[in-house]
Structure formats: structure tokens, C-alpha cells
Amino acid sequence: MASRVVTVAFQGVEARRVDVEVQLTGGEMKFMLVGLGDKAVAESRERVRAAFAGLGLAMPSKRIIANLAPADLPKEGSHYDLPIALAVMAAMGILPPDALTEWAAMGELSLDGRIVGISGALPAAVAAGAMGLGLICPEASGAEAAWAGDTRILAAPSLIAVVNHFRGTQILSPPKPGPMMDGERVPDLRDVKGQENAKRALEIAAAGGHNLLFSGPPGSGKSMMAARLPGLLPPLSPTELLETSMVHSVAGLIAKGALTRTRPFRTPHHSASMAALTGGGLKVKPGEVSLAHNGVLFLDELPEFSSQALDSLRQPLETGEVVVARANAHVRYPARFQLVAAQNPCKCGMGGAGRGACGRAPRCQTDYQMKVSGPFMDRIDLQIDVPPVTAADLALPAPAEGTAEAAARVALARQLQADRAADTANGDGAPQRPGAGRFPGKDRRPGPGRSRPAGQGGRGWRADRARLDPHPAAGPDYRRP
Ligand SMILES: Nc1ncnc2c1ncn2[C@@H]1O[C@H](COP(=O)(O)OP(=O)(O)OP(=O)(O)O)[C@@H](O)[C@H]1O
Ligand SMILES: [Mg+2]
User: Fold this and answer.
1) Which atom of ligand 1 is nearest to the CA of 349?
2) 366 CA distance to ligand 1 centroid (A)?
3) What pLDDT is recorded for position 368?
4) Coil, strand, or helix at residue 315?
């Protein structure tokens, strides 16, 4: 009879159920692994063998067949080591036959039998909970998995610890969720002298989740102001925090189970490739647009990005998700982000006006700006000219208002908008602006079918069972109505 252990395969941030079935049959001693695994999965056999040897256990002198079902679902990564090892142990009778029926397992094995941390523990734990199962995961991933609501988590340091737990000789205690962090300190808007129009535009963009472009000569403070945007944005709501953390978990960016309440602010360099921005590559990983989900993607020196890379952002800007096409599957990642960009008016920097104006104006300016396509620019709601900062501006005393005052106005504006959207949803007859109440990266233009039904962030990457509301005093909840 075959033994069976449940694990998961990642498709985007969705964790799909995979059954690891192991059967021992008579015949030549051989370990076969089937079920559309990649190279890391194929190498599991060697790590499992070595981990058994590390524990002083002999592999059965039989033909071992391990099948990862469903066989047509592609499987990537090293987290199949632990479920395969546990299924072999169950087939050998080392574990009681029904010990693992209520658990899913994931983890990479080292050669001495330790279980090494893996990425994706949070979505795996959420998926296991949805299947009515607990999750056995590496000790290093336990604090991250523990954020997944009431899913039972068993965080084991080694294969022998799992065996001892199920044989009742050494019970493992459930892990605690990691800390909730506030993110890095953001510089204050008070440092920016003058530039009142640009600062006002930044505040409006923060309040409405609008895409924003600063255009101006070098040294006018464009990058400086953009870097201050995270300080104006409200913290992530519990639902947004879960969505964003799922993406960061799959990308392996959650350290020691610590989640960050501050909205992501991603600043890819202009040499970034299309795959780096939208996701993909040899092993599919979320790109910058997905790592900026529910936050800001800042593209400094916009025309210096390759036009192919920029145009690949048009679809996620429109739909709030990105679809990466692979040879054998399409992978979806959430990508609802606010775009902030900065550019000089021309290659020489100064554009065609004022002191130090470009000698090749207006040709130089036109050529430079032609590098960014019209449809891409069409997706940027606020396009602001930032004038050069004068010596007189720099000599001014620090402005009376800084990040704290602007952030308070932003929070108030967002609350008003959320209330207005809620009233409209309740049928008070007031006209609803397209995308109202959805921040950031709201739908861009009116039109039927652009907005998703309320509460649906695309496909299945939301789960409302997570224990992500330990800080109810963290400010108003900006959940979409
Ligand atoms: N309005 C301002 N108030 C105070 N300091 C400023 C201001 N504008 C620029 N600076 C100073 O100049 C430096 C350069 O500014 P910043 O890098 O933001 O310019 P930029 O517009 O992004 O230029 P570039 O086009 O070369 O990227 C800042 O670090 C800051 O010290
Ligand atoms: Mg700059």
C-alpha cells in the first residue's frame, strides 16, 4: 500500500495541493521520483538518502517509487524533501500509518537531517489551513507560518524531531508569530525647501493613489521628494498586509517571520530587465511590480529604462496583476502598485529653457521623451514640472509643515473617500468615481469591467483567516469597501 503526505506547489502566490505518494515494491533497489518536478525536485532523492544516512537509518532495500500528484502540475523548489522523506518513513513503518493524515509538510533537508528554511511558508500555511490541515515546516520558517490564522504549525529543526514528535517521545511546541515591524525610517518632507507645487502634487498622489511623474533639471529635488512619499502613506490594512506578505514570502524576503506594516517602496535601477520588473526568469519569482503590491514603485530616470521593460508595466498598471507566461504554465502575481517616476526634460538635463538650457533644444527634448511610449505616459495621472531650486530657496528656513502634517491630511482624505465609497455601495445614489476607495493603484479610467468586484484582489491570494490584526490602533482601516 502507498503512503501519502500532502505538500504544496506554488503557482504565483497560490499554494496548490500536491500529494506525495510513496510505494515500496519488490525488485531491484532503486529510488524513482516522478511527477513533473524540476531539477531541484529531482535532486531531492539524494538529499533524502543522505538525511536518512545522517540519522543512521538504512533506506529500504526495495524499489521506492515516489509520485508527486497531480502529475501535470509543474513543481519547482527544494521544499519537497521533507514530505518525500516522511512518506518514505511512513511506508517503512517508522511513523504510525495515520500520523500524517492531518498534516501538510514542506522543508528542505540538509545532509545531516536538519530541516532548512524555505520560502513561501506563509501562503503554504494559509493553504494548509484552507484544506483543514496543519503544516509541518522548518523551525526557521515557523514564525512566518504562524501568522496564518488558526492553522496548526509544527516547526521542526530536524527530521528526527518530527519522528520523535509523532512517536510521542519529544513533543514540539507551536511557534509564535514573528514581530510586526514599522519598516525603515523615512526622511522628512520638511527637508525639502521651496517646491510647493511638487510637494502638493506628492500629497495629492498619496491621498488618491495616483501615478505621478516629476520632470525637471538635475538637482531640483525629484528623487528627494519621491523618497519621502512612504512617510505620507497610511500603514497597510490587515488584508493588504497579508496580500503583500504572501508575495514577499514567496520571494523569500521575510526574515525571521517579521512582517512590515509600512507600504513597500521599491526602487529598481534603470538597468532592470523586463523579467526583473514583472517577474519570471529561470525560476519564476515575483518581479518588482509584485514586490511593490499595495505600495509604491519608484522609477528614477524614467527614459533610461528600456522601452520594452516600461511597456511590460502597462498591463499590470491596468489590471493590478501580472501574468508571467512559462513554457508549461501561466503564473499570476498580484501587482496593484502606485507608480512614481522622475525624469530630466532632455538627455543633457536642463531642457530648453532658462540658464544652462540645452543647445540642441527642442530636438534633444523630443528625442529623449520619445523613449517612453505614449500609452505608458497615458497611465500617469499627475505629470508635474519641477523647476530648478534656487539659492534663495535653499537659504529659506525649514518649512513649517513636514511629513506628519501632510500624512494627517492624506489619512483624512483617504478616510473621506472610503466613507463616500461605502455610502455609494449602500445605495445613497451619489455617483461613484471609478476605482473609488481602492488605494493605491486604483483603476485608471472609467469603463465597464475595469473595477473588480469589491473585495476581490484578482485571484485567490486573499485569505481572511490570518491573525494579522494585532495592532488595531494602527490607524484607520483602508480596506476596499
Ligand atoms: N528643494 C530642495 N530643498 C533642499 N535640498 C534640495 C532641494 N532640491 C535639491 N536639494 C539637494 O540636492 C540634492 C540632489 O537632489 P535630487 O537628487 O533629489 O535631485 P534630482 O532632481 O533627483 O536630480 P537628478 O535629475 O540629477 O536625479 C539633494 O540630496 C538635496 O541635498
Ligand atoms: Mg534624481
Assistant:
1) 25
2) 24
3) 87
4) helix
Q: In whole angstroms, what is the distance from residue 206 CA to residue 345 CA? A: 24
415 with 476: CB under 8 angstroms? yes
**Percent of the chain whose pLDDT exceeds 90:** 66
Tell me how far apart the alpha carbons of residues 53 and 117 are, in angstroms, rounded to a whole number: 21
Q: Is 344 in the pocket of ligand 1 (CB under 6 A)?
A: yes
- Give whichever of 237-246, 346-355, 390-399, 454-463 has the largest mean pLDDT: 237-246
Residue 97 in contact with residue 77, Cβ under 8 Å?
A: no
Mean pLDDT of the chain: 86
Cα-trace Rg, the chain: 26
Distance 188 CA to ligand 1 centre (A): 14
- Alpha-carbon distance of 192 to 206, in angstroms, equals 17
**Cβ neighbour number for residue 82 with a 10 Å cutoff:** 30
Judged against a pLDDT cut of 60, whether residue 434 lies above it is answered with no
Which tens digit of pLDDT belongs to each residue from 240-293?
999 999 999 999 999 999 999 999 999 999 999 999 999 977 778 899 999 999
From 220, 225, 228, 385, give the residue whose CB has the most ligand 1 atoms within 8 Å, as the site to mutate: 220
pLDDT in tens, 331-375: 899 999 999 999 998 887 776 666 667 777 777 788 888 899 999
Cβ of 224 less than 6 Å from ligand 1: yes
Contact 396, 193 (CB under 8 A): yes
Closest residue to atom 29 of ligand 1, CA basis = 224
Contact criterion met (CB below 8 Å) for 62 and 24: yes
d(CA 275, ligand 1 centre) in Å:
30
Q: How far is the CA of 31 from the centre of ligand 1 (A)?
A: 62
Domains of the chain: 3-167 (3.30.230.10), 189-405 (3.40.50.300)
Instruction: Tell me the C-alpha distance between 275 and 284, whole Å.
Output: 9
Cβ atoms of 171 and 148 within 8 Å: the answer is no
Side chain identity, residue 93: G
**Per-residue pLDDT at 201:** 96
Residue nearest to atom 10 of ligand 1 (CA): 221
- Say whether pTM exceeds 0.90: no
| Amino acid found at 427 | G
The model's pLDDT over 139-162, given as tens digits with 9 standing for 90+, comes to 999 999 999 988 999 999 999 999
- Joined together, the cell numbers standing for residue 341 give 517616476
